[in-house]
Amino acid sequence: MLDTQLSSSLSYKLFRADQVRENEGKAAAESGCDLATLMQRAGDAVYLQCQERFANSDVYLVLVGQGNNAGDGYITALNAKQAGKQVIVCAVEPERTLEGDAGDAQAKWLKAGGKIKAFEKGDIDKADIIIDALLGTGITTTIRNEFADIIDAVNSAVTPVVSIDVPSGLDANTGQSMGRCVQANVTVTFVGIKPGLVTGAGKQSCGQLVYADLGVGKAFQSLAKASATLLNIDHFKGMGPRDVHSHKGTYGRLLCIGGNKGTAGAIRLASEAALRSGAGMVRVYTHQSSVIQVSAGRPELMVTDSDLDAALEWASCVVIGPGLGLDSWAEEAFAITMKHCQAHNKPVVIDADALNLLCKQSTAYTINESILTPHAGEAARLLGVSVDDVEGDRFNYARQCSQRYHAVCVLKGAGTLIDNEKKTWVCRHGNPALATAGSGDVLSGILGALMAQGLAVDIAAKYGVVLHAKAGDDIAQQYGQRGMIASDLFDAVRVLINQ
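C-alpha coordinates predicted for Bifunctional NAD(P)H-hydrate repair enzyme (499 residues):
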Protein backbone atom coordinates (compact mmCIF):
# COMPACT_ATOMS: atom_id res chain seq x y z
CA MET A 1 0.00 0.00 0.00
CA LEU A 2 1.19 3.51 -0.80
CA ASP A 3 0.36 6.66 1.11
CA THR A 4 1.10 9.96 -0.60
CA GLN A 5 1.53 13.50 0.55
CA LEU A 6 1.20 14.88 -2.96
CA SER A 7 -1.91 14.72 -5.07
CA SER A 8 -0.20 15.25 -8.42
CA SER A 9 0.67 12.52 -10.92
CA LEU A 10 4.21 12.48 -9.52
CA SER A 11 3.01 10.21 -6.73
CA TYR A 12 2.42 7.50 -9.35
CA LYS A 13 5.76 7.88 -11.13
CA LEU A 14 8.87 5.85 -10.39
CA PHE A 15 12.40 7.23 -10.64
CA ARG A 16 15.74 5.49 -10.35
CA ALA A 17 17.87 6.40 -7.35
CA ASP A 18 20.54 7.95 -9.56
CA GLN A 19 17.90 10.21 -11.12
CA VAL A 20 16.98 11.48 -7.68
CA ARG A 21 20.60 12.08 -6.67
CA GLU A 22 21.42 13.87 -9.92
CA ASN A 23 18.37 16.12 -9.94
CA GLU A 24 17.31 16.80 -6.35
CA GLY A 25 19.79 19.66 -5.89
CA LYS A 26 18.59 21.48 -8.97
CA ALA A 27 14.98 20.76 -8.06
CA ALA A 28 15.61 22.24 -4.62
CA ALA A 29 17.20 25.35 -6.14
CA GLU A 30 14.27 25.80 -8.53
CA SER A 31 11.94 25.46 -5.55
CA GLY A 32 13.73 28.10 -3.51
CA CYS A 33 15.63 25.90 -1.06
CA ASP A 34 18.80 23.80 -0.79
CA LEU A 35 19.81 20.24 0.03
CA ALA A 36 20.18 21.04 3.72
CA THR A 37 16.55 22.13 3.74
CA LEU A 38 15.56 18.88 2.08
CA MET A 39 17.38 16.95 4.80
CA GLN A 40 15.52 18.90 7.46
CA ARG A 41 12.21 18.24 5.73
CA ALA A 42 13.05 14.56 5.38
CA GLY A 43 13.73 14.20 9.10
CA ASP A 44 10.55 16.12 9.86
CA ALA A 45 8.53 13.83 7.55
CA VAL A 46 9.90 10.69 9.19
CA TYR A 47 9.16 11.91 12.70
CA LEU A 48 5.64 12.91 11.62
CA GLN A 49 5.00 9.37 10.39
CA CYS A 50 6.33 7.95 13.64
CA GLN A 51 3.96 10.13 15.59
CA GLU A 52 0.96 9.30 13.43
CA ARG A 53 1.54 5.55 13.27
CA PHE A 54 3.29 4.79 16.57
CA ALA A 55 2.01 7.57 18.80
CA ASN A 56 2.65 5.71 22.05
CA SER A 57 6.35 5.16 21.37
CA ASP A 58 8.43 6.90 24.03
CA VAL A 59 11.87 5.39 23.40
CA TYR A 60 13.38 5.88 19.95
CA LEU A 61 16.36 3.87 18.73
CA VAL A 62 17.94 5.62 15.75
CA LEU A 63 20.49 3.61 13.79
CA VAL A 64 22.75 5.71 11.58
CA GLY A 65 25.42 5.02 9.00
CA GLN A 66 27.77 7.48 7.35
CA GLY A 67 25.99 9.19 4.44
CA ASN A 68 23.10 11.56 3.87
CA ASN A 69 20.72 8.86 5.08
CA ALA A 70 22.40 9.22 8.46
CA GLY A 71 21.81 12.96 8.30
CA ASP A 72 18.09 12.33 7.89
CA GLY A 73 18.35 10.04 10.92
CA TYR A 74 19.99 12.69 13.07
CA ILE A 75 17.25 15.19 12.19
CA THR A 76 14.61 12.60 13.09
CA ALA A 77 16.40 11.97 16.40
CA LEU A 78 16.53 15.70 17.13
CA ASN A 79 12.80 16.04 16.45
CA ALA A 80 12.05 13.18 18.83
CA LYS A 81 14.33 14.59 21.54
CA GLN A 82 12.77 18.04 21.27
CA ALA A 83 9.36 16.41 21.65
CA GLY A 84 10.44 14.91 24.97
CA LYS A 85 11.14 11.39 23.76
CA GLN A 86 14.02 9.31 25.03
CA VAL A 87 16.34 8.87 22.06
CA ILE A 88 19.22 6.40 21.66
CA VAL A 89 21.43 7.04 18.63
CA CYS A 90 23.73 4.20 17.58
CA ALA A 91 26.28 4.62 14.81
CA VAL A 92 28.36 2.04 12.98
CA GLU A 93 31.37 4.27 13.68
CA PRO A 94 30.41 6.37 16.72
CA GLU A 95 33.59 8.46 16.74
CA ARG A 96 33.42 9.38 13.07
CA THR A 97 32.60 12.97 12.16
CA LEU A 98 30.39 13.11 9.09
CA GLU A 99 30.85 15.63 6.29
CA GLY A 100 28.57 17.99 4.39
CA ASP A 101 24.89 18.33 5.26
CA ALA A 102 24.98 15.04 7.17
CA GLY A 103 27.85 16.42 9.26
CA ASP A 104 25.82 19.54 10.01
CA ALA A 105 22.88 17.39 11.12
CA GLN A 106 25.17 15.33 13.31
CA ALA A 107 26.58 18.52 14.86
CA LYS A 108 23.06 19.77 15.61
CA TRP A 109 22.31 16.53 17.41
CA LEU A 110 25.44 16.79 19.53
CA LYS A 111 24.88 20.48 20.24
CA ALA A 112 21.42 19.67 21.55
CA GLY A 113 23.00 17.33 24.09
CA GLY A 114 22.50 14.15 22.13
CA LYS A 115 24.98 11.30 22.37
CA ILE A 116 26.23 8.75 19.85
CA LYS A 117 27.14 5.22 20.88
CA ALA A 118 28.05 1.90 19.35
CA PHE A 119 25.17 -0.50 18.76
CA GLU A 120 24.44 -3.23 21.28
CA LYS A 121 21.65 -5.80 20.96
CA GLY A 122 20.29 -4.70 24.30
CA ASP A 123 19.46 -1.30 22.79
CA ILE A 124 16.62 -2.91 20.83
CA ASP A 125 15.08 -4.27 24.01
CA LYS A 126 14.81 -0.73 25.40
CA ALA A 127 13.19 0.75 22.28
CA ASP A 128 9.54 1.23 21.37
CA ILE A 129 10.44 2.08 17.77
CA ILE A 130 13.51 1.72 15.55
CA ILE A 131 14.51 4.31 12.96
CA ASP A 132 16.59 2.75 10.20
CA ALA A 133 19.04 5.30 8.78
CA LEU A 134 21.95 2.93 8.21
CA LEU A 135 22.25 2.73 4.43
CA GLY A 136 20.67 4.86 1.74
CA THR A 137 20.03 4.50 -1.99
CA GLY A 138 23.69 4.55 -3.01
CA ILE A 139 24.44 0.95 -2.04
CA THR A 140 25.48 -1.19 -5.02
CA THR A 141 27.55 -3.97 -3.44
CA THR A 142 27.10 -6.58 -0.73
CA ILE A 143 26.93 -4.81 2.62
CA ARG A 144 29.72 -5.06 5.16
CA ASN A 145 29.53 -7.34 8.20
CA GLU A 146 29.13 -4.51 10.70
CA PHE A 147 25.93 -3.42 8.94
CA ALA A 148 24.75 -7.00 8.41
CA ASP A 149 25.02 -7.76 12.13
CA ILE A 150 22.86 -4.78 13.05
CA ILE A 151 20.29 -5.63 10.36
CA ASP A 152 20.08 -9.21 11.64
CA ALA A 153 19.43 -7.94 15.16
CA VAL A 154 16.71 -5.56 13.91
CA ASN A 155 14.98 -8.24 11.85
CA SER A 156 14.97 -10.71 14.73
CA ALA A 157 13.16 -8.23 16.99
CA VAL A 158 9.44 -7.47 17.16
CA THR A 159 9.97 -3.73 17.59
CA PRO A 160 8.38 -1.71 14.75
CA VAL A 161 10.85 -0.30 12.24
CA VAL A 162 10.61 2.89 10.16
CA SER A 163 13.15 3.00 7.33
CA ILE A 164 14.34 6.28 5.87
CA ASP A 165 14.11 6.51 2.07
CA VAL A 166 14.85 2.80 1.55
CA PRO A 167 15.19 -0.21 3.88
CA SER A 168 18.91 -0.57 4.56
CA GLY A 169 20.50 -3.20 2.37
CA LEU A 170 17.89 -2.97 -0.40
CA ASP A 171 18.89 -1.96 -3.93
CA ALA A 172 16.51 0.93 -4.54
CA ASN A 173 16.36 0.30 -8.29
CA THR A 174 15.86 -3.45 -8.41
CA GLY A 175 14.41 -4.39 -5.01
CA GLN A 176 17.22 -6.93 -4.54
CA SER A 177 18.70 -7.52 -1.10
CA MET A 178 22.42 -6.81 -1.05
CA GLY A 179 23.18 -9.69 1.30
CA ARG A 180 20.99 -8.42 4.15
CA CYS A 181 18.00 -6.14 4.15
CA VAL A 182 15.93 -4.49 6.87
CA GLN A 183 12.32 -5.68 6.96
CA ALA A 184 10.54 -2.44 7.76
CA ASN A 185 7.01 -1.79 8.93
CA VAL A 186 7.03 1.62 7.26
CA THR A 187 9.36 3.17 4.69
CA VAL A 188 9.29 6.93 4.07
CA THR A 189 10.79 7.68 0.67
CA PHE A 190 11.63 11.12 -0.67
CA VAL A 191 11.53 13.26 -3.85
CA GLY A 192 10.81 10.32 -6.18
CA ILE A 193 9.52 6.79 -5.54
CA LYS A 194 12.23 4.28 -6.39
CA PRO A 195 11.33 1.23 -8.53
CA GLY A 196 12.78 -1.35 -6.15
CA LEU A 197 10.37 -0.31 -3.40
CA VAL A 198 7.22 -1.46 -5.20
CA THR A 199 7.88 -4.92 -6.64
CA GLY A 200 9.20 -8.33 -5.62
CA ALA A 201 11.15 -8.67 -2.40
CA GLY A 202 11.46 -4.88 -2.16
CA LYS A 203 7.72 -4.50 -1.72
CA GLN A 204 7.85 -6.95 1.18
CA SER A 205 10.85 -5.22 2.78
CA CYS A 206 9.27 -1.76 2.69
CA GLY A 207 6.10 -2.57 4.56
CA GLN A 208 3.84 0.46 4.29
CA LEU A 209 5.37 2.80 1.71
CA VAL A 210 4.95 6.51 2.37
CA TYR A 211 5.95 9.12 -0.20
CA ALA A 212 6.96 12.68 0.69
CA ASP A 213 8.04 15.00 -2.12
CA LEU A 214 9.72 17.44 0.35
CA GLY A 215 8.26 20.39 -1.51
CA VAL A 216 10.29 19.85 -4.70
CA GLY A 217 8.12 17.31 -6.51
CA LYS A 218 6.96 19.49 -9.38
CA ALA A 219 10.42 20.80 -10.10
CA PHE A 220 11.91 17.32 -9.93
CA GLN A 221 9.29 15.92 -12.29
CA SER A 222 10.23 18.52 -14.89
CA LEU A 223 13.88 17.47 -14.69
CA ALA A 224 13.68 13.66 -14.69
CA LYS A 225 11.87 11.19 -16.92
CA ALA A 226 9.99 8.49 -15.03
CA SER A 227 11.25 4.95 -15.47
CA ALA A 228 7.86 3.36 -14.73
CA THR A 229 4.35 4.19 -13.54
CA LEU A 230 2.27 2.86 -10.66
CA LEU A 231 -1.25 1.72 -11.46
CA ASN A 232 -4.31 1.43 -9.26
CA ILE A 233 -8.00 0.88 -9.90
CA ASP A 234 -8.74 4.61 -9.82
CA HIS A 235 -6.79 5.08 -13.05
CA PHE A 236 -9.48 3.20 -14.99
CA LYS A 237 -13.03 4.28 -15.73
CA GLY A 238 -14.36 0.77 -16.10
CA MET A 239 -16.11 -0.66 -19.14
CA GLY A 240 -19.04 1.75 -19.09
CA PRO A 241 -22.72 0.99 -19.80
CA ARG A 242 -23.55 -1.38 -22.63
CA ASP A 243 -25.40 -0.28 -25.74
CA VAL A 244 -29.11 -1.08 -25.62
CA HIS A 245 -28.93 -2.60 -29.12
CA SER A 246 -25.91 -4.79 -28.40
CA HIS A 247 -25.92 -8.60 -28.51
CA LYS A 248 -23.63 -11.36 -27.31
CA GLY A 249 -21.47 -11.14 -30.41
CA THR A 250 -20.77 -7.50 -29.64
CA TYR A 251 -18.63 -8.50 -26.68
CA GLY A 252 -16.33 -10.93 -28.40
CA ARG A 253 -15.86 -14.62 -29.02
CA LEU A 254 -13.15 -15.97 -26.76
CA LEU A 255 -11.58 -19.40 -27.19
CA CYS A 256 -9.80 -20.88 -24.16
CA ILE A 257 -7.42 -23.76 -24.90
CA GLY A 258 -6.10 -26.10 -22.22
CA GLY A 259 -7.22 -28.59 -19.61
CA ASN A 260 -5.22 -31.68 -20.44
CA LYS A 261 -5.96 -34.98 -18.76
CA GLY A 262 -6.11 -34.35 -15.01
CA THR A 263 -5.94 -30.53 -15.23
CA ALA A 264 -9.47 -29.58 -16.26
CA GLY A 265 -9.81 -27.14 -13.36
CA ALA A 266 -7.29 -24.68 -14.78
CA ILE A 267 -9.09 -24.07 -18.07
CA ARG A 268 -12.45 -24.06 -16.29
CA LEU A 269 -11.24 -21.25 -14.01
CA ALA A 270 -9.90 -19.25 -16.95
CA SER A 271 -13.04 -19.64 -19.04
CA GLU A 272 -15.47 -18.88 -16.22
CA ALA A 273 -13.38 -15.83 -15.27
CA ALA A 274 -13.76 -14.66 -18.86
CA LEU A 275 -17.54 -14.94 -18.64
CA ARG A 276 -17.56 -13.00 -15.37
CA SER A 277 -15.36 -10.34 -16.98
CA GLY A 278 -17.88 -9.64 -19.71
CA ALA A 279 -16.89 -11.76 -22.70
CA GLY A 280 -19.98 -12.31 -24.86
CA MET A 281 -19.29 -15.94 -25.75
CA VAL A 282 -16.66 -18.33 -24.41
CA ARG A 283 -15.72 -21.62 -26.03
CA VAL A 284 -13.29 -24.11 -24.50
CA TYR A 285 -11.12 -26.52 -26.47
CA THR A 286 -9.97 -29.19 -24.05
CA HIS A 287 -8.79 -32.78 -23.81
CA GLN A 288 -11.41 -35.45 -24.36
CA SER A 289 -11.14 -36.60 -20.74
CA SER A 290 -11.82 -33.09 -19.45
CA VAL A 291 -14.99 -32.17 -21.37
CA ILE A 292 -17.48 -33.18 -18.69
CA GLN A 293 -15.47 -31.64 -15.86
CA VAL A 294 -15.18 -28.30 -17.67
CA SER A 295 -18.83 -28.07 -18.71
CA ALA A 296 -20.43 -29.44 -15.54
CA GLY A 297 -22.33 -26.76 -13.67
CA ARG A 298 -21.52 -24.03 -16.15
CA PRO A 299 -23.77 -24.51 -19.21
CA GLU A 300 -22.86 -21.06 -20.53
CA LEU A 301 -19.51 -22.49 -21.65
CA MET A 302 -19.33 -24.16 -25.05
CA VAL A 303 -16.94 -27.08 -24.69
CA THR A 304 -15.34 -29.18 -27.41
CA ASP A 305 -12.51 -31.67 -27.79
CA SER A 306 -12.43 -31.70 -31.60
CA ASP A 307 -11.85 -29.50 -34.67
CA LEU A 308 -9.54 -26.92 -33.16
CA ASP A 309 -9.19 -25.23 -36.55
CA ALA A 310 -12.92 -24.46 -36.67
CA ALA A 311 -12.86 -23.18 -33.09
CA LEU A 312 -9.98 -20.85 -33.93
CA GLU A 313 -11.80 -19.54 -37.01
CA TRP A 314 -14.81 -18.79 -34.79
CA ALA A 315 -12.81 -16.94 -32.16
CA SER A 316 -11.97 -13.25 -32.10
CA CYS A 317 -9.46 -13.76 -29.27
CA VAL A 318 -7.63 -16.73 -27.72
CA VAL A 319 -6.31 -17.77 -24.31
CA ILE A 320 -3.94 -20.74 -24.36
CA GLY A 321 -2.04 -22.46 -21.57
CA PRO A 322 -4.02 -23.13 -18.38
CA GLY A 323 -3.70 -26.87 -17.74
CA LEU A 324 -2.36 -27.39 -21.27
CA GLY A 325 0.43 -29.77 -20.34
CA LEU A 326 3.54 -30.60 -22.32
CA ASP A 327 2.65 -33.86 -24.07
CA SER A 328 1.94 -34.48 -27.75
CA TRP A 329 -1.70 -33.34 -27.43
CA ALA A 330 -0.48 -30.06 -25.92
CA GLU A 331 2.26 -29.58 -28.49
CA GLU A 332 -0.16 -30.09 -31.38
CA ALA A 333 -2.76 -27.71 -29.93
CA PHE A 334 -0.05 -25.12 -29.27
CA ALA A 335 1.41 -25.32 -32.79
CA ILE A 336 -1.99 -25.08 -34.51
CA THR A 337 -3.04 -22.16 -32.30
CA MET A 338 0.13 -20.15 -32.70
CA LYS A 339 0.23 -20.60 -36.48
CA HIS A 340 -3.39 -19.50 -36.75
CA CYS A 341 -3.00 -16.47 -34.50
CA GLN A 342 0.15 -15.40 -36.32
CA ALA A 343 -1.42 -15.81 -39.77
CA HIS A 344 -4.55 -13.88 -38.77
CA ASN A 345 -2.93 -11.47 -36.29
CA LYS A 346 -5.45 -12.64 -33.72
CA PRO A 347 -5.07 -11.43 -30.10
CA VAL A 348 -3.80 -14.17 -27.79
CA VAL A 349 -2.99 -14.56 -24.10
CA ILE A 350 -0.17 -17.07 -23.58
CA ASP A 351 0.00 -18.51 -20.08
CA ALA A 352 1.28 -21.45 -18.02
CA ASP A 353 2.39 -24.47 -20.06
CA ALA A 354 2.00 -22.53 -23.31
CA LEU A 355 4.85 -20.36 -22.07
CA ASN A 356 6.96 -23.45 -21.47
CA LEU A 357 6.26 -24.59 -25.03
CA LEU A 358 6.94 -21.11 -26.38
CA CYS A 359 10.40 -20.92 -24.86
CA LYS A 360 11.40 -23.95 -26.96
CA GLN A 361 10.40 -22.09 -30.14
CA SER A 362 11.17 -18.48 -29.29
CA THR A 363 11.94 -17.48 -32.88
CA ALA A 364 9.08 -19.36 -34.52
CA TYR A 365 6.20 -17.01 -33.69
CA THR A 366 5.64 -13.28 -33.59
CA ILE A 367 2.12 -12.09 -32.81
CA ASN A 368 1.63 -8.36 -32.48
CA GLU A 369 -1.44 -8.54 -30.24
CA SER A 370 -0.20 -10.92 -27.56
CA ILE A 371 0.15 -10.96 -23.78
CA LEU A 372 2.57 -13.26 -21.96
CA THR A 373 1.82 -13.90 -18.27
CA PRO A 374 4.88 -15.55 -16.71
CA HIS A 375 5.73 -15.89 -13.06
CA ALA A 376 9.43 -15.65 -12.24
CA GLY A 377 10.10 -19.33 -13.00
CA GLU A 378 8.43 -19.16 -16.41
CA ALA A 379 10.16 -15.88 -17.22
CA ALA A 380 13.49 -17.50 -16.35
CA ARG A 381 12.80 -20.31 -18.83
CA LEU A 382 11.66 -17.87 -21.51
CA LEU A 383 14.92 -15.94 -21.19
CA GLY A 384 17.36 -18.72 -20.36
CA VAL A 385 18.35 -17.29 -16.97
CA SER A 386 17.83 -18.30 -13.34
CA VAL A 387 14.83 -17.51 -11.16
CA ASP A 388 17.14 -15.57 -8.84
CA ASP A 389 18.24 -13.46 -11.81
CA VAL A 390 14.63 -12.55 -12.59
CA GLU A 391 13.66 -11.81 -9.00
CA GLY A 392 16.84 -9.79 -8.51
CA ASP A 393 16.03 -7.39 -11.37
CA ARG A 394 12.37 -7.71 -12.27
CA PHE A 395 12.17 -4.52 -14.32
CA ASN A 396 15.08 -5.55 -16.52
CA TYR A 397 13.78 -9.04 -17.22
CA ALA A 398 10.20 -7.95 -17.83
CA ARG A 399 11.57 -5.63 -20.51
CA GLN A 400 13.80 -8.37 -21.94
CA CYS A 401 10.84 -10.72 -22.13
CA SER A 402 8.61 -8.22 -23.93
CA GLN A 403 11.39 -7.35 -26.37
CA ARG A 404 12.40 -10.91 -27.15
CA TYR A 405 8.84 -12.03 -27.89
CA HIS A 406 7.47 -8.67 -29.12
CA ALA A 407 4.59 -9.02 -26.70
CA VAL A 408 3.22 -7.32 -23.61
CA CYS A 409 4.82 -9.10 -20.67
CA VAL A 410 2.90 -9.43 -17.41
CA LEU A 411 5.54 -10.51 -14.89
CA LYS A 412 3.46 -11.80 -12.00
CA GLY A 413 4.36 -11.53 -8.34
CA ALA A 414 4.32 -8.93 -5.58
CA GLY A 415 4.02 -5.69 -7.51
CA THR A 416 3.16 -7.30 -10.86
CA LEU A 417 4.91 -5.59 -13.79
CA ILE A 418 3.40 -4.86 -17.20
CA ASP A 419 5.91 -4.06 -19.96
CA ASN A 420 5.22 -3.35 -23.63
CA GLU A 421 8.84 -2.99 -24.86
CA LYS A 422 8.73 0.79 -24.37
CA LYS A 423 7.03 1.49 -21.05
CA THR A 424 6.65 -0.28 -17.71
CA TRP A 425 3.77 -0.17 -15.25
CA VAL A 426 3.56 -1.60 -11.73
CA CYS A 427 0.34 -2.77 -10.09
CA ARG A 428 -0.11 -1.25 -6.63
CA HIS A 429 -2.81 -3.72 -5.62
CA GLY A 430 -2.42 -7.34 -4.59
CA ASN A 431 -1.64 -9.38 -1.49
CA PRO A 432 -0.37 -12.87 -0.56
CA ALA A 433 -3.88 -14.31 -0.72
CA LEU A 434 -3.48 -14.33 -4.50
CA ALA A 435 -0.68 -16.88 -4.13
CA THR A 436 -3.17 -19.71 -4.48
CA ALA A 437 -3.76 -22.42 -7.05
CA GLY A 438 -5.69 -21.16 -10.08
CA SER A 439 -5.21 -17.45 -9.42
CA GLY A 440 -3.10 -17.08 -12.56
CA ASP A 441 -5.70 -18.96 -14.61
CA VAL A 442 -8.33 -16.46 -13.51
CA LEU A 443 -6.04 -13.62 -14.57
CA SER A 444 -5.63 -15.14 -18.03
CA GLY A 445 -9.38 -15.37 -18.43
CA ILE A 446 -9.82 -11.75 -17.42
CA LEU A 447 -7.17 -10.60 -19.89
CA GLY A 448 -8.70 -12.62 -22.70
CA ALA A 449 -12.18 -11.28 -21.98
CA LEU A 450 -10.98 -7.68 -22.05
CA MET A 451 -9.24 -8.14 -25.40
CA ALA A 452 -12.28 -9.99 -26.75
CA GLN A 453 -14.38 -6.95 -25.85
CA GLY A 454 -12.14 -4.75 -27.96
CA LEU A 455 -9.62 -3.29 -25.53
CA ALA A 456 -6.17 -2.67 -26.99
CA VAL A 457 -3.57 -5.14 -25.78
CA ASP A 458 -1.74 -2.59 -23.57
CA ILE A 459 -4.91 -1.38 -21.91
CA ALA A 460 -6.28 -4.89 -21.47
CA ALA A 461 -3.05 -5.99 -19.79
CA LYS A 462 -2.95 -3.04 -17.41
CA TYR A 463 -6.64 -3.04 -16.55
CA GLY A 464 -6.83 -6.83 -16.25
CA VAL A 465 -3.90 -7.05 -13.85
CA VAL A 466 -5.32 -4.26 -11.69
CA LEU A 467 -8.82 -5.78 -11.68
CA HIS A 468 -7.46 -9.16 -10.62
CA ALA A 469 -5.24 -7.74 -7.87
CA LYS A 470 -7.87 -5.33 -6.52
CA ALA A 471 -10.44 -8.14 -6.40
CA GLY A 472 -7.95 -10.09 -4.28
CA ASP A 473 -7.55 -7.11 -1.97
CA ASP A 474 -11.30 -6.66 -1.60
CA ILE A 475 -11.85 -10.31 -0.71
CA ALA A 476 -8.92 -10.35 1.72
CA GLN A 477 -10.21 -7.23 3.43
CA GLN A 478 -13.63 -8.78 3.87
CA TYR A 479 -12.68 -12.33 4.85
CA GLY A 480 -8.92 -12.38 5.50
CA GLN A 481 -6.07 -13.65 3.35
CA ARG A 482 -6.00 -17.26 4.44
CA GLY A 483 -8.47 -19.59 2.81
CA MET A 484 -9.17 -17.55 -0.32
CA ILE A 485 -9.52 -19.71 -3.44
CA ALA A 486 -9.26 -18.63 -7.04
CA SER A 487 -12.98 -18.83 -7.82
CA ASP A 488 -13.67 -16.38 -4.99
CA LEU A 489 -12.36 -13.71 -7.37
CA PHE A 490 -15.25 -14.05 -9.82
CA ASP A 491 -17.86 -11.99 -7.98
CA ALA A 492 -15.33 -9.37 -6.87
CA VAL A 493 -14.10 -8.89 -10.44
CA ARG A 494 -17.68 -8.59 -11.64
CA VAL A 495 -18.38 -5.85 -9.12
CA LEU A 496 -15.25 -3.91 -10.04
CA ILE A 497 -15.70 -4.16 -13.79
CA ASN A 498 -19.19 -2.70 -13.50
CA GLN A 499 -18.16 0.32 -11.41
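The chain has two domains: 2-226, 235-497.
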